[in-house]
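for the recovery benchmark. tokens below, seq after
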């Protein structure tokens, strides 16, 4: 990293630190921050192109319109570099966002499918001569007149609008870039940059149960932490940080993705907000459906660090519901391997503390991991 980029990153982190500290209540959190710094200050670690994609342009007979606007909104805007969203992120009209991020369909080519979920499918594509990922979210049959279908439709639409809104205001090298979004009939479309390295889950699967090397683990963790530091500085809580939502390019540069269940921090867990995430990575306060803040992401990051450290899925011997019960009622956490560096173990234990106020901020985690990385570099040159 050049001296210029280091200076820019340090300046950005200082601003984020000031914003985050402004919201910290009581001296206990500051003391926790100081103890984190003391604990790790002397850490010693031992040891493109579109060809061949089978791309096709969407036929004009489909009569898709790039000018159609969504009627429901969960919008926001940035004023003077500070986050600004309507009350609970849902009062500001999205007409401006819709105009800015409408897709020029004459420039969009669809390629092969490369992933799918319960309600969404991902395709490779090319948009304006750039490789992209096209996420399609299909709503239930519009003619279905049952309560479950209506609830599912509302939930999927809310997730789409949230993701489009938050991504339209986030700009960072470690956050997935939005290229465009639109709705046609009963399908939502979200176009983002394409990352050829797949997800962190894919990388861990290739390890076949073996942990990542320590230098690779620290490098990936540091990029995730930097992305999350920025996301929190914008007043956004991700709420679903897990390997499936961490994407990598061919050089293992990290991008945080999937903001479908993200929220404006001031409204997380408020009336009308139904927390959604994944139990194995979910913080206790979210499992209990209490009001929560950005520290839920720190908890998930701790679980994610453990997963990279061990190569195992957390609570693999339990069902997700059993894991959630054990986390809340028994304060169960995954077991550490015997050869885990004591400093890394201490960081993980801080992150997944049952008390949100005892968990560090991401700017603190970045500083700790930067020291780890520097120490590894010194060991490697000896």
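predicted aa per position
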């Amino acid at each position: 990293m050049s001296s210029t980029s280091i200076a820019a990153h340090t300046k950005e982190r200082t601003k984020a630190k000031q914003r985050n500290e402004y919201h910290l209540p009581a001296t206990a959190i500051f003391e926790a921050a100081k103890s984190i710094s003391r604990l790790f200050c002397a850490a010693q670690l031992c040891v493109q192109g579109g060809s061949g994609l089978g791309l096709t342009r969407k036929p004009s007979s489909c009569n898709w319109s790039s000018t159609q606007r969504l009627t429901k909104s969960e919008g926001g805007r940035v004023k003077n570099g500070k986050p600004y969203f309507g009350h609970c992120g849902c009062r500001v009209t999205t007409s401006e966002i819709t105009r800015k991020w409408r897709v020029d369909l004459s420039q969009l080519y669809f390629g092969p499918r490369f992933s799918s979920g319960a309600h969404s499918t991902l395709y490779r594509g090319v948009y304006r001569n750039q490789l992209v990922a096209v996420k399609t979210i299909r709503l239930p049959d519009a003619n279905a007149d049952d309560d479950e279908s209506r609830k599912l439709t509302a939930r999927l639409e809310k997730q789409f609008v949230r993701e489009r809104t938050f991504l339209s205001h986030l700009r960072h090298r470690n956050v997935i870039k939005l290229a465009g979004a639109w709705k046609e009939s009963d399908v939502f479309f979200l176009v983002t940059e394409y990352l050829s390295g797949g997800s962190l889950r894919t990388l861990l699967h290739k390890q076949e149960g073996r942990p990542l090397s320590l230098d690779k683990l620290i490098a990936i963790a540091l990029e995730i932490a930097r992305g999350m530091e920025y996301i929190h500085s914008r007043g956004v809580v991700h709420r679903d940080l897990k390997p499936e939502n961490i994407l990598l390019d061919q050089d293992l540069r990290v991008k945080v993705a999937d903001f479908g269940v993200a929220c404006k921090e001031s409204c997380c867990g408020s009336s009308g907000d139904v927390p959604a995430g994944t139990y194995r990575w979910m913080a206790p306060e979210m499992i209990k459906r209490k009001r929560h803040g950005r520290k839920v992401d720190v908890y998930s990051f701790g679980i994610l660090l453990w997963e990279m450290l061990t190569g195992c899925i957390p609570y693999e011997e339990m069902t997700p519901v059993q894991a959630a019960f054990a986390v809340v009622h028994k304060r169960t956490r995954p077991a550490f391997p015997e050869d885990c560096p004591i400093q890394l173990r201490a960081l993980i234990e801080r992150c997944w503390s049952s008390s949100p106020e005892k968990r560090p901020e991401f700017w603190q985690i970045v500083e700790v991991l930067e020291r780890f990385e520097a120490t590894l570099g010194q060991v490697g040159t000896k």
